[in-house]
């Protein structure tokens, strides 16, 4: 007797295979922690396991059992990690695990063995077994199951490969990386492709670090700041335009804490009002801001020391605290920069950038580092700032501009645009508290030194007429994309020995592509090749062209001052 096709049997099979990957994704979406992209990809790549049971329906139960055990083993580890840390398992986690010492690794693992985690694993396993008991064969004709199997493979692998290799003219490695990145939300691929991505990115990072180790030190480096202990802090923001900061005259009160500090400590707090970035992208900006590279010589970061190299050469113990994702294809360069320091704190191991991991997490390690007994400390703090999606940058109870309609937001905005506009201001408001707390923590520590805060680039959130631009693009630049905050806080002790006339320098036109010269000057470091005219605080400062555009396409280079208001 010929067996009939059953939609119910197909449904139970899909639920069984999806269960191991989509459960965490459902929790993530339901909690508002991230968007639905991970859920979509886990559903798609969970269907891959239909192929063997469709091709061999008489062996459905044992095949599903073997696959289920493999999926359970990988997914239960990811589930336990999510329960303990509230983040998805990613290649960043692998990086942290392999970088930790034995004691840290044992502490990492012991957190898994709690009654709460064990109870959740028990329930999770029981549900998986129940779903397996409901499985029945799906009978179809040979041609149908072959066609369906080919269709699944085409959708999961053929179309993405065609998109990358043929339509976008990319190489095969790009296609593999793209597919791996989509599979990484699904069991067991979060380990297999996660490890593949980790190894690729680790190799890229090690190559960068190896090249960096061959760079000769600065010649005749001299520290003119005396012998007193000191701490210097560099805080790097993200996607924060000064256009939307009330500290710089914006109509909504988005930066109340920084304004209080400015009013209470006018000699310690300087907000520079005419500083811009050179590129509207994080990596490209920091390749210039943290090195001697600039728009006219963009590759100097490969052959000359970075700020991190310089500070280590000057005898500072160096630290890097970051809430940026640690080990992703895009952030490999950032991780390589961080590895140029003596000690790193990687706080954000989330799989997706569009997820809730708030910048106030940097406060605790920052205060810890301030207590380090080293006489000379250099600390970099890298934030997520006001990066898209803006509503993920602050807790829901901090959505202070939600549903606000006033005469500040452009009247032409539709409801969705107004939501983004308000969310960006709420992100600014939360970012204000993070920066202010870092300054207060630094001030309360009584450390002798200075703290500099700037953002890598700005963001145009319907700021520029006709108020339709959201985000940033080098091909269609606006001033909002390049206008950034630049704030210097000096301890009273440091300010006494490094005085400047704020009224004379605060409005100087400057680009952070020359930041290394200002940082050197502020730190009291001089060396062969130091250019005082490129330091915003130096009495020999002279305005230089503030170039913007892609430096590898020289015809696209222009200056910020060429942009219309």
Q: How many helical elements?
A: 20
Gyration radius (Cα, Å) is: 26 Å
Mean pLDDT: 88
Uncertain runs with pLDDT below 50, 5 residues or more? Answer: none
**Termini separation:** 79 Å
Describe this structure in words.
The protein is α/β, with parallel strands linked by helices and 565 residues long. The protein folds into 2 domains: 7-202, no CATH class; 230-562, 3-Layer(aba) Sandwich (Alkaline Phosphatase, subunit A). The chain is built from 20 helices and 15 strands. Strands 3-11-8-2-7-5-6 form a 7-stranded mixed sheet, sandwiched between helices. The chain has a two-stranded antiparallel ribbon with strand order 1-13. Strands 4-12 form a two-stranded parallel ribbon. It is elongated, with a radius of gyration of 26 Å. The model has no long low-confidence stretch (mean pLDDT 88).
Ordered list of secondary-structure elements with their pairings:
Layout: H1 7-30, H2 37-46, H3 50-55, H4 60-85, H5 91-99, H6 102-110, H7 115-133, H8 142-167, H9 172-183, H10 189-213, E1 222-223, E2 230-237, H11 256-264, E3 269-272, E4 275-276, H12 282-289, H13 307-313, E5 317-325, H14 332-338, E6 343-348, H15 363-370, E7 376-382, H16 415-444, E8 449-455, E9 460-461, E10 470-471, H17 479-482, E11 486-490, H18 492-497, H19 502-505, E12 510-511, H20 515-523, E13 525-526, E14 547-548, E15 558-559
Parallel strand pairs: 2-7, 2-8, 4-12, 5-6, 5-7
Antiparallel strand pairs: 1-13, 3-11, 8-11, 9-10, 14-15
Helix pairs in contact: 1-2, 1-4, 4-7, 5-10, 8-9, 9-10, 10-14, 11-16, 15-16
């Amino acid at each position: 007797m010929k067996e009939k096709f059953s939609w119910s049997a197909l449904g139970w099979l899909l639920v069984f295979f999806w269960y191991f990957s989509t459960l965490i994704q459902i929790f993530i979406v339901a909690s508002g922690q991230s968007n639905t992209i991970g859920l979509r990809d886990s559903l798609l790549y969970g269907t891959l396991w239909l192929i063997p049971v469709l091709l061999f329906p008489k062996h459905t139960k044992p095949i599903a059992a073997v696959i289920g055990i493999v999926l359970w083993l990988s997914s239960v580890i990811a589930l336990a990690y999510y329960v303990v840390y509230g983040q998805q398992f990613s290649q960043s986690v692998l990086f942290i695990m392999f970088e930790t010492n034995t004691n840290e690794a044992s502490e990492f693992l012991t957190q898994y063995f709690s009654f709460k985690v064990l109870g959740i694993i028990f329930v999770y396993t029981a549900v998986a077994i129940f779903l397996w008991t409901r499985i029945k064969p799906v009978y179809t004709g040979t041609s149908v199951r072959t066609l369906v199997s080919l269709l699944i493979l085409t959708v999961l692998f053929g179309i993405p490969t065609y998109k990358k290799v043929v339509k976008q003219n990319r190489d095969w490695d790009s296609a593999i990386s793209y597919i791996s990145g989509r599979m990484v939300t699904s069991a067991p691929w979060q380990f297999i492709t996660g490890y593949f991505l980790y190894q690729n990115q680790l190799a890229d990072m090690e190559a960068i670090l190896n090249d960096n180790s061959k760079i000769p030190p600065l010649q005749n480096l001299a520290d003119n700041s005396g012998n007193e202990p000191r701490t210097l802090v560099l805080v790097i923001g993200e996607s924060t335009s000064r256009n939307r900061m009330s500290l710089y005259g914006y109509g909504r009160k988005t930066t109340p804490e920084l304004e209080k500090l400015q009013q209470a400590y006018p000699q310690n707090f300087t907000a520079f009002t005419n500083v811009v970035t050179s590129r509207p992208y994080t990596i490209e900006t920091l390749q210039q801001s943290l090195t001697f590279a600039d728009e006219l010589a963009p590759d100097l970061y490969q052959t000359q020391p970075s700020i991190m190299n310089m500070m280590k050469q000057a005898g500072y113990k160096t630290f890097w605290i970051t809430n940026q994702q640690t080990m992703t294809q895009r952030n490999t360069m950032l991780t390589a920069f961080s590895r140029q320091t003596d000690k790193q704190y990687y706080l954000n191991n989330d799989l997706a950038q569009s997820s809730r991991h708030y910048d106030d997490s940097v406060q605790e390690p920052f205060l810890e580092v301030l207590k380090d007994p080293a006489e000379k400390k250099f600390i970099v703090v890298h934030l997520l700032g006001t990066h898209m999606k803006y509503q993920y940058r602050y807790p829901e109870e901090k959505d202070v501009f939600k549903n606000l309609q006033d005469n500040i937001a452009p009247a032409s905005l539709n409801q969705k645009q107004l939501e983004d506009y308000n969310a960006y201001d709420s992100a600014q408001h939360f970012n204000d508290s993070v920066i202010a707390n870092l300054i207060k923590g630094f001030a309360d520590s009584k450390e002798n030194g200075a703290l500099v805060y700037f953002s890598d680039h700005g963001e145009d959130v319907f700021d520029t007429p006709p108020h339709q631009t959201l985000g940033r693009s080098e091909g269609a630049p606006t001033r909002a994309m390049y206008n950034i905050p630049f704030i210097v806080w000096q301890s009273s002790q440091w300010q006494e020995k490094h005085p400047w006339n704020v009224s004379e320098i605060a409005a100087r036109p400057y680009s952070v592509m020359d930041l290394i010269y200002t940082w050197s000057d502020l730190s009291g470091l001089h060396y062969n090749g130091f250019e005082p005219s490129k330091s915003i605080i130096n009495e020999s400062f002279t305005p230089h062209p503030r170039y913007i555009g892609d430096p590898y396409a020289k015809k696209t280079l222009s200056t910020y001052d060429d942009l219309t208001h």
